[in-house]
Amino acid sequence: MEEPLVPFAVSIRRFHSAFPFAVSIRCFHWPFPFAALPFAVSTDLSTRVDSHSSKAAHPRINYGCDVTHRTPVLLGLGYDASASFLRGAALAPPAIRKSLYSPASNGWSESGIDVLEALTDNGDLDLPETPEAREMIEHAVDEIVARGERPVLLGGDHSVTYGIVRGLTRHVRDVTVVQIDAHPDLYDVFDGDRFSHACQFARIMEEGLVRRLCQVGIRTFTGHQRDQATRFGVEVVDMPRWSRGDRLMVSGPIYLSIDLDGIDPAFAPGVSHPEPGGLTVREVLELIRGLGGPVIGADIVELNPHCDVNDRTAGVAAKLVTEITARIMET
Q1: What residue segments make up the domains of the chain, in order of their start?
Q2: Rounded to whole angstroms, how far apart are CA atoms 311 and 13?
Q3: Model's pTM, two decimal places?
Q4: pLDDT band at 27, cuts 50/70/90?
C-alpha cells in the first residue's frame, strides 16, 4: 500500500481565454505536467516587520508585484567548516564560475534568456572558519534582498543555508523552501555540532523562519530524522515516492536549496557524500521549470572539487545556476 500524501492547501488562478476560474487544491497524486499550463500563483505578500531577528529589520518586500525585484545576484560562500567526513566544498565557488563562464557554453537558458547578461556577480564572501561566518552570511543576504535583488548563492557546505534563510526572511514572509537533497539534514545535533551541515533545516524549522519545507530526492532517512520531519511537518517526496510518480505542488514565495548529492552520482560525482539512486539532471531541471514562483532565491551547495571528475559536477552546478536564474527572472 502506498503512503498517503500529506494534505495541503494551495490556491491557483488559471487563466484561459474561454474559461477563467480559480481552484483550491488540497492534495494530489498524479504525475501531471503543471509546468506546461499557464498558471499564475496568487500570494499574499503584504509588508510586515521582521519578528525573529534582533537586528534592525527592513520592511518586507512584495515580490509578487514589482519586476525590478527580479534582479539576480550571484554570491559565493566558500565555507566548509561545518562539514562532516570530507572538506573541500569551500573551493566550489571558483570551480562553478569556471564552468559558468566557460566559452564551451553561451550562458543562455533553455527558455531563451541571456542569463550572463542579466546576472550580477558579487564575487565571494570572505568567510572565517568560525561561527561568525553564519552572521556574515545572514548580513550579506539581508543587504542583497534589501536592495530588491534576488540572491543565487554558491556554497560551500549546506550549513550556509541557515544564515541565508535568516537574511532572506527578514524581508519576505511565508516562504516555502524546496530542498533537493539525498539527506534530510534534520539532525538536532550531529557530531556535537548543532550547526552542522546535517542540522541546518532543524534550526530553520525550530525558529519558524519558513512556512513550508518540501524535500525531494531524500534516500537516507534515519529514525531520528523521520521523527524530526514529523515534528516539524516537513513534506517529503523521497526517492521511492518520486519513482512512483508522487510530486509536491508548491507556490511562492519559493526559496530553492540544491545539495548536489541529491543528483545521482552518475551525473554529479563531485560531492563529499555520494548516494546512489538519486535524481537525474533532467528531472531537477524540470522541477525547477515547474516552480510556480515567485522564486526569490536559491543556493547550490556541496560541490567538492577534490572529488569531481573532469569538472562534470561543476558543469552541472553551472547549468543549474543558469536555469535557476532564468526561473527567478521569469517569476
Answers
A1: 10-330
A2: 42
A3: 0.80
A4: very low
- Using the Cα atoms of residue 183, residue 184, residue 185 and residue 191 in order, give the sign of their dihedral: negative
Q: Which residue has the cell 569538472?
A: 311
Return all residues near 222 (Cβ < 8 A) that are at least 6 apart: none
CB 239 within 8 A of CB 227: no
Instruction: Quick: pLDDT tens for 85-100.
Output: 899 999 999 999 999 9
Distances (CA, A) of 242 to 212, 215, 264, 273: 19, 11, 13, 21
Within the chain, how many helices (H) and strands (E) appear? 9, 11
Q: Which CATH number fits domain 10-330: 3.90.79.10, 3.40.800.10, 3.40.50.970, 1.10.3720.10?
A: 3.40.800.10
Helix (H) / strand (E) containing 151: strand 149-155
φ/ψ of 227, rounded to 5, equals -60, -40
Q: Which three cell numbers stand for residue 166?
A: 535568516
Reply yes or no on whether the pLDDT at 150 is more than 80: yes
Q: Residue 115: left if φ>0, alpha if ψ -120 to 50, beta else—which one? A: alpha
Eight-state DSSP code of residue 172: -
Q: Which grid coordinates belong to 270?
A: 563531485
pLDDT tens string 161-200: 999 999 999 999 999 999 999 999 999 999 888 889 899 9
> In the structure grid, which three cell numbers stand for residue 231, read together?
515534528
